[in-house]
Amino acid sequence: MVDVHHLLAFCTMSLLLSAVPGPSVLFVVGRALAHGRATALASVLGNALGGYVLVVAVALGVGSLVERSAVVFHTIKLLGAAYLIVLGVRAVQASWRGRDMAGRPADAKGGDGTAGSVRAGFWVGVTNPKSVVFLTAVLPQFVDREAGHATAQMLVLGLAGALLQLLSDGIWGLGAATARDWLGRSPRRTAAIGGAGGMAMIGLGASVAFTGRAE
User: Fold this and answer.
1) How far apart, in whole angstroms, are the C-alpha atoms of residue 18 and residue 45?
2) Residue 61: CB partners within 8 Å, gap ≥ 6?
3) What is the DSSP-derived secondary structure letter of residue 64?
């Protein structure tokens, strides 16, 4: 059984961290600007699911491998960075194709479609080795050792954190999508906003790739 005080403390910390614009928020905002509301929300769901897979990995002890191995850490990090850059390039290409259209860019309404957007968010979430290191260091601190079932407690704590991330990132995504709709009153401007979202994802991918390992 998870201690209520530990759960509240972990939820408070998770909510504060989720509200601060970090890689997850920047990814969601970039998707919202590039493709709109539906893609942003689907990406939020996928990102939260990917993040919870990392929670499961940490609860089962896999997180310590990433924490100890520089090779594993950097391999996962570069895969995630490359995927972000690919998503960004695709968004820029879509905005370029749609710049002269009478309406929105061709894939503005859905990007990769709902399933594809969930999948994209999932891979971005699950290829974040810094999240593994962070969870490995922090999650066990909120476990009540006397209550036993440490793995189950970490899974419950992680689920609470994932739900809060879903809420926080969803708000960021809706806000960015609303701004996109408000600013994008012309096809060219909508295409430019989509291109800006793509460039944001490319920049985020480059930042992830060149950021050193967090010790």
Assistant:
1) 14
2) none
3) H
Q: Report the alpha-carbon distance of residue 138 to residue 161 in Å, rounded.
A: 12
Structure token digits, residue 3:
């201690």
- Please tell me the pTM assigned to this model: 0.74
Average pLDDT score over residue span 65-71 = 67
Take residue 122 and report the two structure tokens written for it. Answer: 């999932």
Confidence check: pLDDT of 44 > 90: yes
Q: How far apart are CA 129 and CA 214, in angstroms?
A: 10
The C-alpha atoms of residue 38 and residue 3 are separated, in whole angstroms, by 37
Q: Give the total residue count for the chain.
A: 215
**Identity at 73, one-letter amino acid code:** F
Give 25-40 pLDDT, tens digit per residue: 888 888 888 888 999 9
- Tens digits of residue pLDDT in 77-115: 788 788 778 888 877 777 666 555 544 444 444 456 888
C-alpha distances in angstroms, 132 versus 13, 24, 28, 118, 119? 16, 14, 20, 20, 19
**Spatial contact of 125 and 47, defined as CB atoms under 8 Å apart:** yes
Q: Which long-range CB contacts under 8 A does 162-168 form with residues at least 24 apart?
A: 162/48, 162/49, 162/51, 162/52, 162/55, 163/48, 164/11, 164/14, 164/15, 164/18, 165/14, 165/18, 165/24, 165/47, 165/48, 165/51, 166/44, 166/45, 166/48, 167/18, 168/15, 168/18, 168/19, 168/25
